[in-house]
């Protein structure tokens, strides 16, 4: 930047060029955005550079962003966000009077700053929308709701909260009396969970003039104030919730207390995991705008990460959208709208886009749920991959670089049961900035489309959406999206509990399990293994894999079938090889440990050949014919167990230098799966009986396990045959930083320790990569 010229030297009407120097080419919006990445101290220093920088660096929205970013404790608003931020930094002023007199400069105009200032002080008295086109209903029966609205369209329902104590007690005045010192979570995104005592928040609401005010959006309000849960009840039509089978500490966030002032609200979004929601307003008024699934609102950007399917939505604040984008919409492109009044409950179906603006101070409660109408959509959204997630939210916009002919062919292949894995998309970023016309002059959902929608029409139908799943991707080992409401292991446990506790809906649960976990594929494999070995086929109770591990495990009668798929074929072969080698060692030395572990009944390799599923027995010895093409991977072909302990150690050496992305890629789906069949152990796991067994039985169990641990350590390490560990150690091994270690003098620990340390270094690097990302 060049130094700003003195007003005495130049009679300028616009001070911006001289005050910003080379930065003058950047619009004010970009400059203000850049400032949010600086520290408060750097912003304070920059404000001294020039008059325009002084103006930009003293904007309240900037200091609000800086304050939220550094907040690491309960907030207490100090009348302005700059003072609140400085309070967070424990900065005090020696001369308060001088700090209350901001400087003023003529000759500077900014439409961007003016619009932001207007949003900060605008009144919403005229925003009431009394001709809304969302249907209103009262005395709605459960059957009427399911037939007409559930999974189909929004509805405003009156009378559901008439008998709630919350109808009269959930006002800011009444809540303040009882919960003034209770801290609640705020809505703003931050590195920390920002909380504010209710009395401080109410004080903030009364004096704030923020463009996008903070509002309470707390999913843990029931833990912070348990009495609040007794003041409302879930309406009967929303009581079916498949997440009910999970304990409270296992189920994802599902209920929120919402409180906010005028101008606050929720920007455009689709509810997590395509769940449905109900929202009951206790005081105040809310304006709602909604679009059906697949229709991205004007001004919204949807980005779906190609690696893990994580979905990010970039949207203007609700107030900014109504002021800046809503007026641009043609009448036919406007959303479904309504104004929610106190006591009314709005239902938002799965996949619907919605935006909410508080017209005055409001208090509400909302819950998300999974029922029989949206269960398959939730399971579909949980499935690994990105393409289907984009289509579920952005509709055909997610396919903007695929010809209509390709889409049509894939629809035909879907009907014929063929794979549609060739469906691909290079650009996962869907941007809607302004309404644009198609070649014939018509608009399509307010955005331009390069394909002929007369050939294919988006449908929020589970069969249509499932077409965009990556059929070749193994859902047991593929990377799970971080935006999913529950993890992969929790998903398996959830489906297992549903299978046991909701037997009347097993057909539906099976469809969901096939979408999320490829349950049909693994059940077919388990059935093939049973047929090959003459075992009874899985019963209806045994159709789903059990446990939370990454390998499908089936309990079939008195047998346990474990199909190894985690981390790819090579890792699976070594997993089975070392396990079989261990059992052999127990038998050779007649270890008493063998009396307390399951007997191995059989083992082998399942593979696909010419489209048919086949099985080949393998006891861990020799090289199976089916993996002849993978023989270069085998280091110890002459050993009794070529995929045993020492070969696995060499694999660990190679993996110690692999990145997380490489490890994930090695676990991609394979058509060759080792398996093992063991005898089923009767009884319950300790976690299930921990609270019910006596202290004496617990001590006896600990003593027994200690004895078995000693027996385990007495099992000798398998012989190395003609290879030596030194030869293994001398091979170049990547260090933690990814470089090859060439200086052997630096290796001054036993070879076994070196392997252990390098494995830990690799894990450390993986953790660092994840945290950095």
TrEMBL record:
Similarity remark: Belongs to the JARID1 histone demethylase family.
The organism of origin for this protein: Solanum verrucosum
Primary location class: nucleus
Protein name listed in UniProt: F-box protein
JmjC domain location: 223-386
Any one GO molecular function term: oxidoreductase activity
Compartmental location: Nucleus
InterPro entries given in the database record: Cupin_8 (IPR041667), F-box-like_dom_sf (IPR036047), F-box_dom (IPR001810), JmjC_dom (IPR003347), JMJD6_ArgDemeth/LysHydrox (IPR050910)
Highest taxon in the source lineage: Eukaryota
A cellular-component GO term for this protein: cytoplasm
Domain named F-box: residues: 20-66
One Pfam short name: Cupin_8
Cofactor or coenzyme needed: Fe(2+)
UniProt keyword annotations, A-Z: Iron, Metal-binding, Nucleus, Oxidoreductase
């Amino acid at each position: 930047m060049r130094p700003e010229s003195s007003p005495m030297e130049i009679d300028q009407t616009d001070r911006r060029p001289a005050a910003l120097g080379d930065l003058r080419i950047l619009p004010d919006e970009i400059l203000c955005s850049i400032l949010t990445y600086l520290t408060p101290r750097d912003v304070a220093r920059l404000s001294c550079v020039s008059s325009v920088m002084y103006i930009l660096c003293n904007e309240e929205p900037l200091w609000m962003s800086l304050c939220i970013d550094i907040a690491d404790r309960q907030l207490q608003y100090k009348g302005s966000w700059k003072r609140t931020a400085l309070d967070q930094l424990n900065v005090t002023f020696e001369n308060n009077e001088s700090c209350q007199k901001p400087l003023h400069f003529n000759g500077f105009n900014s439409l961007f700053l003016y619009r932001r200032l207007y949003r900060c002080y605008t009144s919403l008295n005229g925003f009431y929308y009394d001709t809304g086109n969302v249907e209103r209903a009262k005395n709605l029966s459960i059957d009427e709701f399911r037939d007409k609205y559930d999974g189909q369209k929004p509805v405003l329902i009156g009378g559901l909260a008439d008998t709630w104590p919350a109808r009269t007690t959930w006002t800011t005045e009444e809540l303040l009396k009882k919960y003034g010192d209770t801290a609640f979570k705020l809505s703003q995104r931050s590195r920390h969970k920002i909380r504010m005592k209710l009395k401080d928040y109410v004080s903030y609401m009364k004096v704030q003039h923020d463009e996008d005010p903070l509002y309470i959006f707390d999913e843990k309000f029931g833990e912070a104030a348990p009495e609040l849960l007794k003041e409302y009840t879930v309406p009967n039509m929303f009581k079916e919730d498949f997440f009910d089978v999970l304990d409270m500490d296992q189920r994802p966030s599902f209920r929120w207390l919402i409180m906010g002032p005028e101008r606050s609200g929720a920007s455009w979004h689709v509810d997590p995991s395509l769940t449905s929601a109900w929202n009951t307003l206790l005081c105040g008024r809310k304006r709602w705008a909604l679009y059906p699934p697949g229709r991205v609102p004007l001004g919204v950007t949807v980005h779906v990460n190609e690696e893990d399917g994580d979905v990010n939505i970039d949207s203007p604040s609700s107030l900014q959208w109504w002021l800046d984008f809503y007026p641009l919409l043609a009448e036919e492109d406007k959303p479904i709208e309504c104004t929610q009044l106190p006591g009314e409950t709005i239902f938002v179906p799965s996949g619907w886009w919605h935006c909410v603006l508080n017209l005055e101070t409001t208090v509400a409660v909302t819950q998300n749920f999974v029922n029989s109408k949206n269960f398959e959509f939730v399971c579909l959204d949980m499935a690994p991959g990105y393409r289907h997630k984009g289509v579920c939210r952005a509709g055909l916009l997610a396919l903007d670089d695929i010809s209509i002919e390709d889409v049509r062919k894939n629809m035909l292949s879907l009907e014929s049961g063929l794979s549609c894995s060739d469906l691909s998309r290079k650009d996962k970023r869907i941007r809607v900035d302004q309404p644009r016309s198609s070649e014939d002059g018509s608009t399509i959902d307010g955005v331009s489309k390069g394909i002929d929608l007369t050939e294919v029409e988006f449908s929020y139908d589970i069969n249509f959406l499932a077409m965009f799943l990556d059929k070749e991707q193994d859902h047991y080992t593929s990377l799970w999206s971080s935006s999913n409401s529950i993890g992969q292991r929790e998903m398996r446990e959830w489906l297992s509990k549903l299978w046991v506790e909701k037997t009347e809906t097993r057909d539906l649960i099976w469809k969901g399990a096939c979408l999320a976990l490829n349950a049909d594929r693994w059940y077919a494999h388990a059935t093939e293994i049973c047929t090959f070995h003459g075992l009874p086929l899985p019963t209806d109770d045994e159709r789903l894999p059990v446990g939370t591990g990454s390998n499908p495990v089936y309990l079939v009668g008195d047998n346990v079938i474990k199909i190894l798929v985690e981390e790819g074929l090579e890792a699976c072969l070594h997993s089975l090889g070392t396990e079989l080698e261990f059992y052999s060692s127990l038998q050779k030395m007649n270890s008493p440990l063998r009396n307390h572990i399951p007997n191995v009944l059989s083992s082998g390799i399942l593979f696909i050949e010419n489209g048919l599923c086949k099985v080949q027995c393998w006891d861990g010895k020799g090289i199976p014919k089916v993996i002849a093409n993978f023989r270069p991977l085998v280091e110890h072909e002459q050993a009794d167990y070529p995929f045993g302990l020492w070969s696995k150690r060499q694999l660990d050496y190679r993996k110690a230098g692999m990145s997380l992305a490489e490890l994930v890629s090695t676990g991609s789906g394979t058509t060759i799966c080792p398996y093992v069949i063991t005898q089923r152990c009767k009884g319950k796991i300790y976690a299930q009986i921990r609270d019910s067994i006596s202290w004496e039985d617990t001590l006896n169990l600990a003593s027994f396990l200690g004895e078995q641990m000693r027996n385990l350590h007495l099992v000798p390490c398998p012989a190395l045959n003609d290879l030596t560990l030194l030869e293994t150690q001398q091979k170049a091994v990547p260090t933690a930083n990814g470089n090859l270690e060439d200086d052997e003098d630096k290796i001054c620990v036993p070879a076994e320790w070196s392997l252990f340390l390098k494995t830990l270094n690799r894990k450390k690097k993986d953790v660092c990569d994840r945290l950095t990302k």
